[in-house]
Amino acid sequence: MLELLSIMRRLRGPGGCPWDQEQTHDSLRPYLLEEAAEAVDAVTAGDRAELAAELGDVLLQVAFHSVIAEEEGAFTYADVERAIVDKLVRRHPHVFADVNVRDSGEVVSNWQAIKVAERGGRPRRPADSVPRGLGALAREAQTQHLARHRSDRAALEHSVSSAPDSAEGVAQVLEAAVAWARAHGVDAELALREHTQRRLDALAPQDAE
């Protein structure tokens, strides 16, 4: 990591790369999402060599943001690493302290309780707990989980037949489709990603327009 940080500092410094020098936290947002998505694709494909390469691209984004923040005097990579190390230790008292747990379900319950304690007992607004950068289907699934929303195929069919031919109507159908998927333990975001990839793989090669 030290070598990667040194390279990023050189790219950002005098005599470095004009493109890298122009980047900001805001301008790098789409690249962070893209690199994370490509790492997920590598996991799905089962290609471990590709996964190593894609995780390197994700790590590059961590280094890039850390160097920019270092220049601003906001934080450093050491701060980033220290924060996650402290969090992992704090949220695993069954490993690093004397708390006993029966199973993974109890681990998750403890994790959630510790998160609440970290906020001083203040409840977290639902709008703050669902990342805006998630895919739309994944974000809807998390929202339904928070709202304890359930649905079935009949509700989906009703939504399809009754929804208006508008953006809001499309949104209503997608909401129902996500609820139907959740009722059957299906991750709608991943299911559609994999379905789309199969369709892309089946397309005949064609010249770029």
From TrEMBL:
InterPro entries: MazG-like_dom (IPR004518), NTP-PPase_MazG-like_N (IPR048015), NTP_PyrPHydrolase_MazG (IPR011551). CDD domains: NTP-PPase_MazG_Nterm (cd11528). It comes from the Bacteria. It is an enzyme of class 3 (hydrolase). The keyword Endoplasmic reticulum does not apply. Residues 23-96 form the NTP pyrophosphohydrolase MazG-like domain. GO terms for molecular function: ITP diphosphatase activity. One of its GO terms (biological process) is dTTP catabolic process. Its EC number is 3.6.1.66. This is Nucleoside triphosphate pyrophosphohydrolase. It comes from Deinococcus metalli.
